[in-house]
Design brief:
Layout (H helix, E strand, L loop, with lengths): L8 H12 L7 H4 L9 H11 L5 H9 L14 E4 L2 E4 L40 H19 L8 E8 L2 E6 L8 E4 L7 E3 L10 H15 L6
Antiparallel strand pairs: 1-2, 3-4, 4-5, 5-6
Protein name: SMI1/KNR4 family protein
Pfam families: SMI1_KNR4
InterPro entries: Knr4/Smi1-like_dom (IPR018958), Knr4/Smi1-like_sf (IPR037883)
Length: 225
């Protein structure tokens, strides 16, 4: 459990909606400063029963006290909704969350790149024909994708938002970094890394969300709360 106080969040987001409009803060045109209703305790119980794991305390209390999704970092928090009788997160990249493996530990505490150790892609100059090069290139990328997108890398990660261009950020649900936020930069070949504040400390969900909130207020020219 957590004693995180979220009582100011809806008021601050409403203030941003009035002052910032839809284009002063990156991604706000997508989420429109809208916060969906929070989950009812019974709904959260259904979600956690489905997942087989209790969500980290800060995010759990946010879902109950603030919202199930909407206004938030980048293009907004992926909302959790009941679809065809099953609870799931909705959004561009939300399907990267393997709901059946959230109870398996995400083992990492330091940045890692699943592509490390892979050879360089084939060079067309090394082949006698375009056909041979195309076959080698296809084989390389099949191997690359099998390694980089191995589901084991995503166990214990709950994807919460996207930043465009397939960059995404996720919450560690299970494992030694439980409750902390990570970036998935595999779209740029850079792997995974823990998110940190300006002082270099790991960001928990509350720190991550509040950092965005304060930064949004600064960009909108609002006095800090």
């Amino acid at each position: 459990m957590t004693n995180t106080d979220w009582s100011d969040v809806r008021r601050r987001v409403a203030r941003l909606a009035e002052a910032a409009g839809d284009d002063a803060v990156f991604g706000s045109a997508d989420h429109g400063w809208e916060l969906e209703p929070p989950l009812e305790p019974g709904e959260l119980a259904e979600v956690e029963a489905r997942l087989g794991v209790e969500l980290p305390g800060e995010y759990r209390s946010f879902l109950l006290e603030v919202s199930r999704g909407g206004a938030g970092p980048a293009y907004g928090l992926f909302p959790i909704r009941r679809v065809d009788g099953r609870w799931r997160w909705i959004g561009d990249g939300a399907d990267l969350t393997d709901l059946d493996s959230l109870g398996r530990p995400f083992p990492h505490t330091e940045a890692f790149n699943p592509a490390d150790g892979l050879p360089e892609p084939p060079d067309e100059a090394d082949f006698d024909s375009p056909e041979d090069f195309e076959a080698a290139e296809e084989a390389y990328w099949e191997r690359h994708d099998a390694i980089v997108f191995d589901p084991r890398h995503y166990a214990g990660l709950l994807y919460l938002c996207h930043l465009g261009c397939a960059y995404r950020e996720a919450l560690v649900v299970t494992g030694p970094d439980r409750g902390r936020m990570w970036a998935d930069d595999t779209a740029d070949g850079d792997g995974f890394r823990p998110l940190r504040d300006d002082a270099g400390n790991p960001l928990t969900f509350a720190g991550w969300y509040r950092h965005w909130l304060t930064e949004a207020e600064t960009k909108a020219g609002l006095a800090p709360v």
